[in-house]
Amino acid sequence: MKAKQKSASASRKRPAAHAAKPAKATSAEKVAHVAAGSRWFAWCCARAGLEAEAAFAALIARHAPGAVKGPFNTAARLAAGFSAAELARLEAAA
């Protein structure tokens, strides 16, 4: 039984194979994730008759004042579909 415990313990100490992914792959996944969220948010806003960027700014101001922290990866956010105006609002709120 102790042998099993040692091998299980040793396997927890080794990094998982997926943990060694290059940063570019992780960054691309994050951009895709943010882009998907932005599309859904815009779709929900359009359905409710709201302008997405203004609605997002209002939600941040109401529910998370002071919570927005920089620095922001501007290039990645632009690639994810953020507009320059939306990024300027985030920068101003940070």
User: Strand tally, please?
Assistant: 0
Helix content: over 70%
Largest beta-sheet details: none
Number of structural domains: 1
Q: What would you say this structure looks like, in words?
A:
The radius of gyration is 20 Å and the shape is globular. The longest helix is centred in the middle third of the chain and has 26 residues. The protein is mainly α. The chain is 70% helix and 0% strand. The model has no long low-confidence stretch (mean pLDDT 82).
Please outline what is shown here.
The chain has helices at residues 2-13, 23-48, 52-63, 74-79, 84-93. The protein has 94 residues and is mainly alpha-helical.
Summarize the helices and strands and which ones pair or pack:
Elements: H1 2-13, H2 23-48, H3 52-63, H4 74-79, H5 84-93
Q: Characteristics of this structure?
A:
94 residues; 70% helix; mainly alpha; 0% strand; 5 helices
